[in-house]
Amino acid sequence: MSEENLLLQGHVPHVIGEPMIVCRKVNKWFGDFHALKDIDLEVREREVVVIIGPSGSGKSTLIRCINRLEEHQEGDIIVDGVELTNDVTNISAIRKETGMVFQQFNLFPHLTVLDNITLAQRHVRKRGKAESEKIAMDLLKRVGIPEQAKKYPGQLSGGQQQRVAIARALAMNPKIMLFDEPTSALDPEMIKEVLDVMKELARSGMTMIVVTHEMGFAREVADRVIFMESGRIVETGTPDNFFDNPQHDRTKLFLSQIL
Amino acid sequence: MTDNNPNKVYYEAPPTRPAPVTQTGVIGWVRKNLLASWLDVFLTLIFTFIVVSAVVSFVVWTISNANWWAVSFNFRQFMMGGYEPALEWRLSVAVLFTVVAMGMAVAVWVQRIVRIAAGLIIFTLAFVWLVPALSTALIPIPPVYVAVGNAPIAVDNVNETARPRLAFVGRAGETITVQIAPISTDEQLAALTGFMDMPTNGMRVIAERRLQAAVTRAEIEAQLAAHAASPIRLLTEGQIARLETQLNRLIDIPPVTETLNFAQGGAVVEVLDADGNSIAPAVNLPTANERATFTLPADGWYILHTTGDDDTSINVLAVNGMQPLLQSSVLQPGGGFITNYTRMIDLFAIRGIRAVDDRAVPFFDYIRNQYWGERPFTTYLRLFLAPFLSQHALNLTYILLAGVAGYWALRAVQRWRGAAAGAQVATVALALTPAVIWIMATGLNVPDILNLTVVVGGVFAVLLARALGARFGRQPVMVAVVGAVAALAWGMPLAVFNPHYGFGLLALVNFFSPLLIFIFWVIGSDSYHASDQAEYNRQVGLYSVLTLTFLVVPYLLVQVFGVSPSASYPDWFLRQSDQRLWGGLLLTFILTIYGIVFSFPIGILLALGRRSNLPVIKYGCTLYIELVRGSPFITVLFLAQLFIPLINPEFASVPGTIRALVATIMFSAAYLAENVRGGLQSLPPGQTEAGKSLGLSGWQVIYYITLPQALRAVIPAILGSFVSLFKDTSLVAIVGLTDLTGFVNIMVVQPAFTGTRAEGLLFITLIYFFFSYVMSYVSRLLEASGSGSTRRI
Fold first, then answer.
1. pTM for the structure as a whole
2. B39 has a chain A CB within 8 A of its CB
3. Residue B627 near chain A (CB below 8 Å)
């Protein structure tokens, strides 16, 4: 596929910068279950990495390890130059720079949309009320739902909730965004509105790791696609290479089943 | 007007007719709800029978047999136990403040119950004012019966003499009307009901038994006659023998009225004052139609002096205006007892009567001159309900009006400053209520103010810990510093002040301050990295100075300036009330309110502790919760009574009421912890993960995200456990405290009120029910407002 065609599809190759996330020989067990096996991964600034793979392959576990929602037992994870250890200081420093979007949105149901977005700004970033609310409203405009600011999450559709969740993560000015199957819990007609927001985010130069089953999104936006199976990275490649010319048998089988 | 449209079809609308009469209205309702099937009919009848029989016998007992003077005489004890009368106004202030705050709460949060509340208030006021007024106006006080006559009353086993002199208490302007009761036959004598002296009652009982015996005799004789007349044997030999024995045992006396020459002669009646001087000429009552009327000149003792016409006849006098008296001993504040004589119908009390002619005059005593026979409803109204209501109508009116005043005051604030300001005022008022009640009930004098200063110092120590944590982080050196500050806050006031003041707020603060200081230091250290160093330096400096000031100033006051905690300070200082004297509803409320207030934070900490990752905290909290939940409240109460002095010998002076309060708090905290833990566990783990992924610290996640949701989810459960706590406080009766339940046990020991346990229990049941119902109603309002459920995605 020529450069021209890529541009027509909207694929803007990102200007890749310094390494943001470095994983070296990361191993993770849940009890006796070996969930991640010798993961080596480097994600650079402004890079968009899409992780795909069958369920139970460790995709979510990998990105949850990156902001310490899960603890890895072996290997090193270095995020933005800070190594993830048991030190609470390092963990909170990394979490501050890492936004995460969940499959189940995980909005705070007892707070309004606006309060959901301002809570961490005020208590972690120590911003004032007016400042954090202005940032929140700007972000709500960016994700296209400024009119929902005073509502509670329960009053919003799934797609709207996920967009609020993205805005909530962005409000912390993270350097990295982690997406854990952000569209899996959505109705088909709502998937697009969320993917549009994510595409816009990718265009703006955010470093992103996206776990998803949306192959169209991966092909269009990703700089790199990673295929995982049984806790191992099986294949890595640019979208074109990965989808059009998979090397590994397991990858071929997986793609043949879902495409 | 003609309609030329050819397509129009004219027809008569089908006639409408009403639904069958058996399907609508009352008949329809009955058929549908009561008689839908044979089973329904059966169940309806059975349950109607059960309900009606229970209610009828209950109401009959309430009206005809119960002695409600037990309640009205002991009303103060039921309300506040032995609380010092001189300090009683403080309880009134606390009650009025609470009711004002509740009126404000209604105006802000539950505007929609205003109509119901207003209706209830109007109904209550009308009831408590109209019932006494109407009963007093329409129903005369029934007379008391007094035997008169010089002949000895010796019939069967009764051996009495009519008392010529009987003292009673009257008030100025009251009239005493005396009349010979129209009794000439045994039937009339047996049917006598009312308060009567012992000779009269003796005669009444004998007449009753004689008439009863006559009825039984007639029955037995009829049976024997039927047997004799019958061609077949109706009775066995044994049965005949038994009936004949029974017949022989029946008393066989001539009519009482004849034996005692009833109403054969007249009587002479005179009313003397306390010195034995006649207030009016004696009146001769020859027959039952005459009446003698005396008007009493002043409040005080009087003597009814009666003599028979001749030496052979007996009469019963019906005396209107004379009331039975209750003799009771009251402990004087200065020591010693005084004896009060209380007129039961209006609780008018007076000291003892002087002896007349060197002989003590017997008085018309409530214990010996009891009400005999069943009371009609009018008597119940006039003797019990109306006096009771009129004794409390004014206080009740003040309380209700305070609620109305609070409501309107808040409406005014709302109009003046807007809804938000109104909500703030109501919140502050409600939040102050526990403090006001505590300060008013216990007092706030010089030692307490010194105590409070130390408490404020403790608060600043907590804030200092937080600032220090934020300034220096969670470093080992700081652990030592915080530990030292905590030890100082714990040890110094205990060492310096406790020997002087005994138990106060101080010891409680001492108990919790190290824990709080540690927690706040950890919370503070969570904002370590986001800190504005200059800001935290300022805070550390400010809080250090304030902590030291507030801890040191009271020390200087006592040690250097010689402020004496034991000196007597004026009463407006709100001197300490004697907590051992607390009782009745006051004690029940104190235990409930402060059980709730103090167990709430402890319960939340226990719930969080049980979910902690640190094994020592986790299993420590689990052990405590399971231990307390695994033992009955009564055991915890006894343990608290025995263990508190073991913690520290100083605590031996802690009164039983406070020990019971500690037990209540410990017990309630364990149950609350489980409720809160249930709420925390009902939250999806994604909530915590989302909070953490945003960079919030563990404490911030708990405080801003999980705890609010968990508490909202379990509001119904928490309120339910508070209602049961309210009722469970009755168990303190077993450890010797006189709360509502405990006082019933004491009431029935009074000689005047032996056998009135049922009345007491019924009264406190109504009280418990009233407040429990209000609490569950509030909980239902909260649930309906949506606070009880989190807004789920």
1. 0.81
2. no
3. no
